[in-house]
Design goal:
- The protein is of the alpha+beta class.
- Helix content is 56%, strand content 15%.
- It contains 14 helices and eight strands.
- Helix 1 (14-56) runs antiparallel to helix 7 (199-241), helix 2 packs antiparallel against helix 3 (88-107) and helix 4 packs antiparallel against helix 5 (147-169).
């Protein structure tokens, strides 16, 4: 039986989700790009088919099976990618197939043309057919986030076109030589000869293709780095969101300074702990115990962030929260006091659900203090942790401890009350409701005594 009051559970760690997404993000985008490319390939092929039939009449039907193979290749690649076949080898294989069938369509003579209209093979270079390779490159770009793949695609197009040129060059009637400019009439006749193949135009086509794919590969590599930086930035924001409320995550994400710089400032500190947790742990299974802690931490995190606090750390069956870190505000003391009381209210509501479900209630004790703290990163080069330390932290911890001896649920230091009075005097009467002064409280490990305010009766 699962305790319904344990819900809502904490979501999986955002950093772990981002790490998992980073490894598959490009493959997923490539798969979606292949789907879009397949659809666009079908639309473009339909338009080209209609145009060829209009332009060539019945002879245009020669290209329809080739175009159908081209469309099938696109959808075949996409469907295989859905089954997990997403390697570069598969992409290269399908692209080579596309290049072969397109090169055949561009350079092979059309047998359906009447003999009187049948152009010599050399004349096929006169129709701007090379432009179809750019359409192929564009469709390939939609399904690839790899600069290496783009370079391969450009090289494949260049090699196929160059192979076609060498094939045509092998025909005995093919003309390459260009008369000098001193013989303009002969030069013009040569250009108009259907057996003439202009090597300078072919070289220009190949050069522009190489440069274009190099630019596209650079753009793909740049976009890939940009996406990686965005994912890393999201991971950093996620890490910040584990400790700080959402309203200051944006500020910290754009902060140019370093958190490791040690600073001293006034802040509110709260310690909250489940009373009698050890005894409770003996009554439930380990799985129920973990679920209960997750539900407790989830609720405490929400209360802290709702009141503008920083979740400093989880302490097993307790939490430590600060108010005024890393930025101070006039609301810090009042927010700390509001949060301390809201923690108790939240646990009371949670206990109502637990009791209704037949599970034992839990008891929460809270200590709150206000004063100077020191904050900064502590640890080693291999592992750093943002920490808040100082006498104020120690006192807040001892105040929470003292709820057992005093017999109450909440102990607030007089220093925190005075800070609230100085910063938010209009709210003091509301925040002080139901709390009573308690003078001369002795704290473990500390000389002298402190004046505090207490709320509610409690027991172990």
């Amino acid at each position: 039986m699962t305790d319904p009051s344990f819900e809502p559970r904490i979501e999986p760690d955002a950093t772990a989700r981002l790490d998992a997404r980073l490894g598959s993000a490009f493959q997923e985008q490539e798969r979606q790009g292949l789907r879009l490319a397949a659809h666009l390939r079908g639309i473009a092929s339909l338009a080209i088919s209609i145009w060829l039939i209009i332009l060539l009449g019945d002879a245009g039907w020669f290209y329809i099976p080739i175009i159908a193979l081209f469309v099938a290749s696109g959808y075949g690649h996409y469907l295989l990618s859905r089954r997990g076949f997403r390697s570069d080898a598969h992409a290269f294989g399908f692209f080579l197939f596309d290049v072969v069938i397109i090169t055949f369509a561009l350079l092979a003579p059309n047998p359906l043309l009447p003999t009187a209209e049948l152009w010599p093979p050399q004349a096929t270079f006169r129709f701007g057919s090379f432009n179809y390779y750019y359409l192929l490159i564009s469709l390939f770009l939609l399904g690839s986030y790899s600069a290496r793949a783009m370079l391969f695609a450009g090289l494949a197009c260049v090699m196929a076109w160059a192979g076609g040129v060498f094939w045509i060059a092998g025909f005995p009637e093919t003309l390459f030589a260009i008369p000098t400019f001193e013989t303009p009439a002969l030069r013009l006749d040569r250009f108009l000869d259907p057996h003439f193949v202009s090597l300078d135009v072919r070289t220009t086509e190949i050069l522009v293709m190489i440069l274009s794919t190099a630019v596209l590969a650079t753009a793909v590599a740049r976009n890939r780095r940009l996406i990686r930086r965005q994912v890393m930035a999201a991971r950093e924001r996620s890490n910040l969101a584990r400790y700080f409320p959402p309203n200051i995550v944006d500020e910290l994400a754009g902060f140019d300074g370093a958190l490791e710089t040690v600073r001293s400032q006034d802040a509110g500190v709260i310690f909250a702990d489940l009373v009698g947790f050890s005894r409770f742990a003996e009554m439930v299974t380990p799985e129920q115990l973990i679920e209960m802690l997750r539900a407790f931490h989830h609720r405490m995190e929400g209360v802290v962030f709702e009141h503008g606090g920083t979740l400093d750390k989880f302490l097993g069956d307790g939490v430590m929260a600060t108010f005024g870190t890393p930025r101070t505000s006039p609301e810090d003391a009042a927010n700390a006091l509001r949060c301390a009381r809201a923690m108790l209210t939240t646990v009371d509501e949670w206990n109502g659900r637990r009791e209704a479900a037949g599970f034992p209630v839990v008891r929460l004790s809270v200590g709150a203090h206000f004063g100077p703290i020191v904050m900064g990163d502590v640890g080693s080069e291999r592992r750093l942790e943002f920490a808040v330390i100082g006498d104020t932290v120690n006192v807040a911890s001892r105040l929470e401890e003292s709820t057992r001896t005093v017999g109450c649920r909440l102990i607030v230091s007089d220093a925190l009350m005075r800070a609230v009075q100085d910063s938010k005097p209009d709210d003091l009467s509301v925040l002080r409701a139901d709390v009573t002064p308690y003078e001369g409280l002795s704290l473990r490990g500390r000389e002298g005594s402190v004046d505090v305010w207490v709320l509610g009766e409690g027991d172990d």
